[in-house]
């Protein structure tokens, strides 16, 4: 998979297994997944689409805070995550809450993250950190986690996500370069959804692909159809195999699209995108094509889908209720979370705020 | 007891902790076979192996991010930033990330990282090597900032910093690395972070300083003694958090204070110290708290260092003012 630097752009053809009509176009690459696995992948994508719709509605009602919509990116997010084991370590970007949930974070905690409550970031037994806000900061950390796994002799990987804008950060290159130099088991996933808020990917770089940036770091790189859940899964699974076999890190670029705004905090995509383009991408929808594929195999039905939708709605309702029941944060909580032992200044401030909060 | 330079005491502290805790990792630019540009890690790779003591690619942000990732895997990283003027390249990893992890994760993760770095003026470096940027670090909640002034303190403070379960910025003044030797026990010992040290007892005026300025303050105190003024010299040792108790105790005795830093005057560590003194002990003061600090310019090119850096004469001048107020 390692490329030469001659004609580098021509070497990054988009890897695809299912076309827009749900037909298998690359039988040789078909991953070894059971019928139950295939159904589970679809269940997760449908569930996440519903979660996205509900989260947007809850945000508009003032019942959720910071939220970055995910519709359109389900195959990129969940296909790649499906290749991860529980012991693998996840370092998500801020749009990557679905992967955290499927990695084990309870839904009500995901809602608390959105509301800006620290309990949403308490990972417990989940091998993950909370979504990174600084674009690219997670990428150098991923190199460190992966190097740590290598030093510990673990057969696991560190997986991180960013977007096309993230691939412009210095930390993106530094993280890939460090992981490559140390032969660390890391997987860097760039979900190229074509816009960094409003700036189109063409303005991010003169490079024709993001995947080719792997060449400069001397690591494996692959560009994959990010609306094709099987291709994303397969590319990630292959990267994972190489990583745990000591063959080093991989950069995966998934070509995808976010249907919604950047976040729910006032972004208006009509200022930078045209409707024709949005319609074109909706034809590539990851759920539509995978549904067709599964239906043709007799593995999916409208009833099954409705069951998933109803279940998702109920679980979301219960999770919001549980999030509502969490105690409010106090300044004294925050003070106590700054250090293992309180230094003099915070001891004084702790007393001050205990007094205020007791009134 | 052994006589050591500060750099030897620092190496000794790292050797001690590499032996004590297999999770301690030392890494950075040139720290491996070369032993660091100041030889702080001399011999450590040979003794502990490349798995524990290793060179990194030349990228400070990458070094900081990698330290965080290693800490997430239960290691106790001691990265070196080759010169502290390069810290701007790694500000997000330090201030945006490691300082916040305990809070951000609600105690799920902590960052037992000690970032070591040389800084300080008077050794004729190129631009952006000598700047005193401890104030920048002290402004970041979640970090401790430690600056030793003697070989003895350097060893005890560095061992304690490495053992601390939260991030510590450990700044080593280049001028002090080899300028004198001091007694350093060969066995291990620790010095509590956040505790100042009275380096010279006196009853007439309190001089509060840290790093190389401790030595300028001691030199000024010697001169003052000849003039019949008995100065107390307090070495902060940890500039964040500041040990107010030791300072206030001294101020209540002397009633006069000069606070001293090598850094520029504006928004500095000693401005904070002066403010705490007036909040906590104004009725004990016979004179305003005066500051000795560098002018509010960028750190100068090397041929202008000597006229720019504060020195013991600047301290004497301010002491004279507070004594005759």
TrEMBL record, chain A:
This is Pyruvate dehydrogenase E1 component subunit alpha. The pyruvate dehydrogenase complex catalyzes the overall conversion of pyruvate to acetyl-CoA and CO(2). It contains multiple copies of three enzymatic components: pyruvate dehydrogenase (E1), dihydrolipoamide acetyltransferase (E2) and lipoamide dehydrogenase (E3). Its cofactor is thiamine diphosphate. Pfam families: E1_dh. Residues 302-329 form a coiled coil. It catalyses: N(6)-[(R)-lipoyl]-L-lysyl-[protein] + pyruvate + H(+) = N(6)-[(R)-S(8)-acetyldihydrolipoyl]-L-lysyl-[protein] + CO2. PANTHER family: 2-OXOISOVALERATE DEHYDROGENASE SUBUNIT ALPHA, MITOCHONDRIAL. Heterodimer of an alpha and a beta chain. The lineage of its organism: Bacteria, Bacillati, Bacillota, Bacilli, Bacillales. Gene3D superfamilies: 3.40.50.970. Its EC number is 1.2.4.1. One of its GO terms (molecular function) is pyruvate dehydrogenase (acetyl-transferring) activity. One of its GO terms (biological process) is branched-chain amino acid catabolic process. InterPro entries: Alpha-ketoacid_DH_E1_comp, DH_E1, PdhA/BkdA, THDP-binding. Keywords: Coiled coil, Oxidoreductase, Pyruvate, Thiamine pyrophosphate.
Automatic annotation (TrEMBL), chain B:
Keywords: Oxidoreductase, Thiamine pyrophosphate. Transmembrane segments: none annotated. Residues 4-179 form the Transketolase-like pyrimidine-binding domain. InterPro entries: THDP-binding (IPR029061), Transketo_C/PFOR_II (IPR009014), Transketolase-like_Pyr-bd (IPR005475), Transketolase_C (IPR033248). GO terms for molecular function: oxidoreductase activity. The keyword Translocase does not apply. SMART domains: Transket_pyr (SM00861). The keyword Oxidoreductase applies. Its cofactor is thiamine diphosphate. PANTHER family: PYRUVATE DEHYDROGENASE E1 COMPONENT BETA SUBUNIT, PYRUVATE DEHYDROGENASE E1 COMPONENT SUBUNIT BETA. This is 2-oxoisovalerate dehydrogenase. It comes from Pontibacillus chungwhensis BH030062.
